[in-house]
Automatic annotation (TrEMBL):
<feature type="compositionally biased region" description="Acidic residues">
    <location>
        <begin position="567"/>
        <end position="587"/>
    </location>
</feature>
<feature type="domain" description="FtsK">
    <location>
        <begin position="250"/>
        <end position="451"/>
    </location>
</feature>
<dbReference type="InterPro" id="IPR002543">
    <property type="entry name" value="FtsK_dom"/>
</dbReference>
<keyword id="KW-0067">ATP-binding</keyword>
<dbReference type="InterPro" id="IPR050206">
    <property type="entry name" value="FtsK/SpoIIIE/SftA"/>
</dbReference>
<protein>
    <submittedName>
        <fullName>Plasmid transfer protein TraB</fullName>
    </submittedName>
</protein>
<feature type="binding site">
    <location>
        <begin position="274"/>
        <end position="281"/>
    </location>
    <ligand>
        <name>ATP</name>
    </ligand>
</feature>
<keyword id="KW-0547">Nucleotide-binding</keyword>
<dbReference type="InterPro" id="IPR027417">
    <property type="entry name" value="P-loop_NTPase"/>
</dbReference>
<feature type="region of interest" description="Disordered">
    <location>
        <begin position="552"/>
        <end position="601"/>
    </location>
</feature>
């Protein structure tokens, strides 16, 4: 037994059995030493002040003051400990007063000392025993963690333990600590627990400045890459949750686009933001494939990168634009359909878009007829207007290009999705950014976190700057319908590989055959702005070719030798006729280099109208002087009169000014008429 050792915490390691027992007894000795010291003070006081009335008054006042001071000093402890301390001091000081005046052995004074003193000492021993944890270490329930990080005397409640997630309520010291103190200490807590910074989150109680929940996720379940294998709910409604991936505790990462009046959830617009290499493309593909798999939604999609990542899904889109003037027309069309869709929804008794609005209107409660009978109108599917690589569009159209859409579209059953690398204020107006309530924030530069996420989410522990582009697919999702406590929880989207391409192509084919088509109101409003640039989704078996493509029929030499050898526009020319005389201005150089004929005013109007028809037939609805250069060369016409003709056409209603100086939108012929 003499060779047994104990460690400093009481385990056998470094000392004798006597040392071990002494170490275990140390926490229980102070109450007994205080009991002995109290008896000694009483005996000395009686020797100094026997039967002294003035001393009695002084000792009584001292006893009362000491008890009150103990009560006040205990305000930062628990109520039970505060009361226990005050009662102990009151009993001890009262006994000392009696012993000093009457003597420690007079009457019941000695009996009270011998019985009451040990009882109080034992009560404190019991308290120490109850505070001792299972390892034999005396301390608070957090093992001194909060004291280490500067949150001493904060109280942790009973923790809720889930798979890979621990949630503990936290109560701070009233008047001394606030929720801001906890958010500033999160990095220290992560350091104390030897966990990454993103594993520790704090969710403040919205009704209190000193209460909240501390969330600890000890294991990163996102390290394993999960590949996309297909949509989660093929044929479901767009109102059902859209599955993007999973959170770090294994639960599904979801979001919603339409609102739900029963659940109190508003419709939303979305922002997808993340630096190059952060997995922004995969995040967008996760969201887009989920949208296209639903039966009651159409998608208008703009991608200045010529659908580099989204080509397999293009056939399922209702409208696809490749940037430039095509996107400019799409923006104008979205602006035009908003009031048309809002009027339709209002006329049918819908305050916001719900899945029933996409069905044939056979319910008398949603009838546009004055007599109250079912109107039978064709339903209106939800519309997603998606602008990929939107920084390009914003540079061309201005930083407030989406502001009107973002502020007005939600009530019309339209959701705006904007994707770009850095949503800073020099690229996107603050009004537009404030109107995008939802965000998928991927890795970014630490200095750019505030552009993507709300400040409250960053304070609660969200830190996309910690990933940058080193962890593709890691993200935070902030969106209506998601529990706000989940906002600072990291998730990860699913990975799209080459194996996903055939599945995406089959999904696009499903959308062609089974997906929604634009309702007459939406299609009419879009065509009124875009003309032939908007045709709606091509059916899978209608044999149509994409606009602008030419199909070579003869496989041998690429020439069609079965038709006439003369262009149709030259069919009426007599090859034997004399050439016309030269006209004024045919060879007159303009600006020192250019030459061309100046047509008469009547001829100019006719030629310009023909040019606009050519552009409209080709689906190019945004034009400017530079677009007429090749046309002028083809027709041997000078160019300076183009600007004048543009202004005349605008006055006549055939053109409409755009947000870009020198660019005009062609008003379709029927709309102009």
């Amino acid at each position: 037994m003499q060779g047994m050792v104990v460690d400093p915490q009481g385990g056998p390691e470094n000392g004798t059995v006597r040392a071990y027992l002494l170490h275990k007894a140390k926490p229980h000795i102070p109450p007994w030493l205080t009991w002995g010291a109290t008896g000694l003070v009483g005996a000395l006081g009686h020797w100094r002040w026997p039967d002294n009335a003035a001393a009695g008054v002084g000792l009584t006042l001292t006893s009362v003051a000491l008890t009150g001071a103990t009560w006040l000093a205990g305000k930062n402890t628990t109520q039970q400990r505060r009361l226990h301390s005050a009662v102990t001091v009151a009993c001890g000081s009262a006994w000392v007063t009696a012993a000093c005046l009457a003597g420690p052995t007079a009457g019941p004074v000695d009996d009270l000392f011998l019985m009451g003193g040990p009882a109080l000492a034992l009560s404190w021993n019991v308290r120490v025993v109850l505070r001792t944890n299972t390892e034999g270490v005396v301390g608070s329930s957090d093992g001194g963690l909060l004291a280490k990080v500067g949150l001493a005397r904060a109280q942790i409640g009973a923790a809720k333990v889930e798979p890979n997630r621990v949630t503990a309520p936290l109560a701070l010291q009233p008047g001394e600590q606030t929720n801001d103190d906890v958010t500033k200490a999160l990095a220290k807590i992560a350091s104390a627990l030897d966990l990454p910074r993103t594993a520790i989150r704090y969710s403040p109680d919205p009704d209190s400045e000193r209460r909240g929940e501390l969330v600890i996720v000890p294991e990163d379940m996102l390290a394993e890459v999960v590949e996309w294998e297909g949509p989660s709910n093929l044929g479901g409604s767009i109102a059902d949750p859209l599955v993007l991936g999973r959170y770090d505790d294994g639960s599904l990462l979801v979001m919603w686009l339409p609102g739900d009046p029963d659940a109190g959830r508003n419709s939303t617009h979305g922002l997808i933001a993340g630096q190059s290499g952060s997995g922004k493309g995969d995040a967008a593909l996760n969201l887009l494939t989920e949208i296209l798999s639903r039966r009651d939604v159409i998608v208008w999609f703009s991608d200045p990168k010529a659908f580099q990542d989204f080509a397999p899904l293009r056939a399922g889109l209702d409208w696809a634009a490749e940037g430039g003037s095509q996107t400019e027309v799409m923006v104008a069309a979205v602006e035009a359909v908003i009031p048309a869709r809002t009027r339709w929804l209002g006329a049918h008794g819908y305050r916001q878009w719900v899945p029933e609005a996409a069905e044939v209107q056979n319910d008398p409660e949603h009838s546009c007829r004055a007599d109250g009978r079912a109107c039978g109108c064709v339903g209106m599917p939800f519309l997603v207007a998606w602008f990929e690589e939107a920084a390009n569009t914003l540079r061309n159209l201005g930083d407030d290009a989406f502001t009107g859409i973002a502020q007005e579209a939600r009530s019309a059953g339209v959701s705006l999705i904007v994707s770009l690398q850095r949503p800073s204020y020099d690229q996107m107006s603050t009004s537009t950014r404030a109107s995008l309530p939802s965000v998928i924030a991927l890795g970014c530069d630490p200095r750019d976190e505030g552009f993507s996420l709300p400040e409250t989410v960053i304070d609660a522990g969200a830190h996309p700057g910690a990933w940058a582009n080193r962890r593709p697919g890691y993200c935070y999702v902030v969106s209506p319908g998601i529990d706000e406590a989940r906002y600072p929880s990291p998730g990860r989207t699913r990975r799209f590989t080459i194996r996903a391409v055939p599945v995406m192509e089959r999904l696009a084919a499903w959308a062609q055959a089974n997906g929604a088509v634009a309702d007459p109101v939406t299609a009419g409003a879009a065509s009124g702005v875009a003309g032939r640039a908007y045709t709606g989704r091509t059916a899978a078996d209608d044999g149509q070719q994409p606009t602008g493509l030419r199909v070579v029929r003869d496989e041998e030499d690429g020439m069609d030798n079965g038709g006439p050898l003369v262009d149709p526009e030259d069919a009426d020319i007599d090859p034997e006729a004399e050439l016309p005389e030269s006209e004024e201005g045919d060879d007159a150089p303009l600006f020192g280099e250019e030459s061309g004929r100046k047509p008469t005013p009547e001829e100019a109007r006719r030629l310009f109208a023909a040019a606009l028809e050519e552009f409209e037939d080709a689906g190019q609805m945004i034009v400017g002087p530079k677009d007429f250069m090749d046309w002028c060369d083809r027709n041997n016409l000078s160019r300076p009169w183009v600007s004048a003709r543009l202004k005349e056409a605008a006055i006549e209603g055939r053109l409409e000014a755009t947000n870009t100086t020198g660019r005009w939108r062609i008003v379709p012929v029927l709309t102009a008429a």
